[in-house]
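Sequence, structure tokens quoted for completeness.
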Amino acid sequence: MAFMGPATSVAFNTAPAAGGAGQALPFALLLALAACLLVANTIAGFARKLPTAGFAYTYNTHAFGPSGGFLSGWLLLISYGMVGPMLFSAIGAFGSDFLAAQFGWHVAWEVITLAFVAIVWAINASGVSHSAKAAMIFLVIELGVVLGLASTILGKGGAGGVSLAAFDPARSLAGISGLGTGMLWGVLMFIGFESVATLGEEAKNARRTVPLALFSAVIVIGLFYVYTAFASSSGFASGTQFAADSSPWTTLAQKFWGGTAVLTLTVMASQFANVISGSNAIVRVIFAMGRESILPRALGRASSRNTPAVALGAYMVFSVLFALLVGLKYGPYGVYGFAGTVLGLGMVFIYIVISIGVIRFYWRRHRAEFSVARHGILPVLTALIMLLPVYGQLDPAPAYPNNLAIWLIVGWMVVGAVYLGYLHRRRPALIGAMGKAFEDTSDSRQPAATVPAPPEGASPAV
């Protein structure tokens, strides 16, 4: 749950989600919670048979063959690649606002972003590992502060009384499409829960403990998100007012606590912890892809400290250039909105494909254990529900530049398909090498005990 960065998610995802759902945001997050529980069912189904760190790459390789796995890895690369630009711009914006509000110091957000890029770069270059104990401490503080503010809002009766009308879907500002937009940003809040499945190689009795951990993480953090959405919706007099506020939780902290310092520092600490773990994870993937020659081999070089120095440098430069160049025209919150839309949509597509994949996987490889409900009806329902956020990005299209996010993903996948075709013809061994890029990035001390993937186009024996 620490990887999900709940304080960051609440502080930054509420505004774009409310932009579509308005005061029906709590209902949209209930939909996101239900959808992620269904995704957890899909992941649990795979994790029972494939206890590996490879997540969607491994799952879709076994469901659709090496090409399916390769394209899944390609989609994960651009999706997770958005974490750095998204969080660096956010921490710059929040830091600038904090200094202005508390001390009257007007420091450009770009300066604060550059400072944090340098700090994160130095920490990751040093090889210092992320402490699980420290992450849990941050998590408890985050949850405590945000829950405290949410409870204060509700305890004081919100803007005009507390009512369950916030769970009425009719209050969405843009109908079904608005709920889809709210749900997209709600799903984005949950991203990271699937990392629990990568612990299957180390967990005792993984068939039981991994599914239990998946469902527990989604339910606990999901209820937190729904509760805070209910509080934030109740804190504004109207859905239009709620949707128009670019930083609703800052507004609510000022109104109900009389100040924003505690919330701002908590969110910045959440962002800092999040960007360290998130950038470290994607850098390790880039390093592995360079080592396997899927990306330029220079990215696979390690420093004298055995850290992925070139991959780290390349990703930090990409993150800062993306944040500053896009932010130059659209501001830091515009960077967060665009990068977050790419990340959210990318993961929604991944969730849809693995839901289809689990049906094929069990039907073709474990038919004796195939359950019509668990491996048939529920995955189909998952894929259908996950189409709602996609619809929210199409009709009506979001404001520029967020309307380009889905087409960026489409273009990226076209490039991936062309590259895949080239590899099939010239370097077929590299298609399978994509797996090492994702499966070798865990901290597991044991090799993955996976079922061999079927050859391209082969039909596995039942």
